[in-house]
Amino acid sequence: MTTGTRVFTRGDALRWGVVLLVLALDGAWLAASGRSVTSASLSGSCLGVAVLAAIAMTLGLIASHPRIDATLRGLHYRRLALVAHSGALLIAFTNVMGVMSYLLVTLAPPLVDGRLAALDQVLGFDWPRTYAWVRAHPGIDYVLKLAYISGLAQLVLIPILTGLLGQASYLREFLANLMLSCVLLLLIAAPWPAAGAYVSYGMASADELATVAHFAQLRDGTLQVFDLGQMQGLVSLPSYHTALALIFIQAMRWSKIGFVLACVLNGLMILSTPTEGGHYLVDVVAGVGLWALTAGMLHAFAGRRTPARLGQAAPAQLA
């Protein structure tokens, strides 16, 4: 079995360790604050993780059988197991971090919307005028909306495609980028919260305002029960959509065609972030910085793990 097709690695143990740590913090904070997660959404999430983890373990065991291990069928089983394992990890991680993001909003430090709007002016960006122009051009507005909502589809499809086509190192790099960037995101956003441009400028539609309605409810204490199936992205600074767009592009560089398509789609997603996500332009700039910081930290970590012996390559991902 080659390194690129291993189902479970030491890096996976670290990633699951992060999930368990955040889960423990979530549980302690929820208990201390009297808040909770709906049992239906919690059980649904746990079931999804358990089913995918069981599939991964079963396929991994089958692939390791001496009569199957060295065959093409064994390779296919390992790839399917890797995809299932990655799906379980993504579901678990996004849910525990979603709860943590909500809990951090309840700390309710002073909002920084005024400072972010002022920085936009320094950059020469007029958010109200840009928003009005995009909405006045339905074709452009439609394309930007599709690009913005493509983030969720890419979050699902890129790991599946990358894993099934045998790009295990890129998949693990993707997971490491995603997890570290999300942790850094919350560390940055917690002390500098913003309601966002939709709320700040008062120009958004009722549907747009509804996408960030939980923010005020968490800050004033009226939202006490969280539904994992209805979680909203409440971080304004940095823009996580921007960071994700760059992570998606990075994850597809193993394929020339896929890389070009990812550049086009995610370039549009970054352009859509101010008007379709209610972000200030400075949020987008900070999102680029978040991606650069994440990639730099992972590269530095990989460099420290590089074997000193001549002729051994540095690991390309947190594995």
TrEMBL record:
Read off the InterPro entries from this record.
Aur1/Ipt1
The UniProt keyword set, sorted, is: Membrane, Transmembrane, Transmembrane helix
The regions listed as transmembrane in this protein's record are 12-30, 42-62, 82-105, 146-166, 178-199, 231-249, 256-274, 280-302
Domain of life per record: Bacteria
Instruction: Using the record's annotation, list all stretches that form the Inositolphosphotransferase Aur1/Ipt1 domain.
Output: 116-294
Transmembrane helix as a keyword of this entry, yes or no, is yes
Query: What cellular component terms from Gene Ontology apply here?
Result: membrane
| Keyword flag tRNA processing | no
The protein's name in its UniProt record: Inositolphosphotransferase Aur1/Ipt1 domain-containing protein
Q: What is the lineage of its organism?
A: Bacteria, Pseudomonadati, Pseudomonadota, Betaproteobacteria, Burkholderiales
